[in-house]
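Subject: Endonuclease structure
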Amino acid sequence: MKIVTWNCSGAFRKKFEAISVIKADIYVIQECENPKECTDQKYSSWAKNYLWIGDNKNKGIGIFSSRENMNLTRLDWSNSFEDHSVKHFLPCRVNNEFNILGVWTHRNNSPTFGYIGQFWKYLQVNQEKLNNTIIAGDFNSNSIWDKWDRWWNHSDVVQQLNQTGIVSLYHEQYREDQGMETRPTFFFRRKHDRPYHIDYFFAGSEFLSRLKKLEVGKIHTWIELSDHVPIICEFHQP
């Protein structure tokens, strides 16, 4: 089982063929168009099996399967914390075997709870549902941006996940600390000298034990298409 997460930086209809070369079973794509409302026939034909949410038809988050016989069922998890709606989170059930939570965090017009704060809020109301779940996506966050006067920093979120047995697969494989990543996933304004690690796979021990390999895409392969590179996870079958 191979799963990819990638922020395509828009216009996915022009880029899906490039990511398809990876030959994954599941693609979690941020900033992609809604295939249902896209006039590009090749993209619509490729996206035969998918789930998608977004604020408008041109930019949202989608979970796509290359296997037409793979069942993707959207889960009814709460997007509201204390009457405030958070975004973007796309939970789904895969073949009634495990869950994937697609993530693309936003500022969401919040002066205090933007980006990782959005995920922190989502976590408070959905944490008990995360058993047997792979969390994948663009978190727009890293512990290097922790602030001393917040209780929902990146490090706090990672600690809360760890307390429930959910870990970052990248950090487990490469034995690196949060904030000390040597393989960036994002290049600010596509500049080689502005690298950051802000995309992640999180999962519990049932997936960590089956992890075959995790790879981070190379900048020279992807920089013409996006300011992000994909992360590819491959798992042994149970």
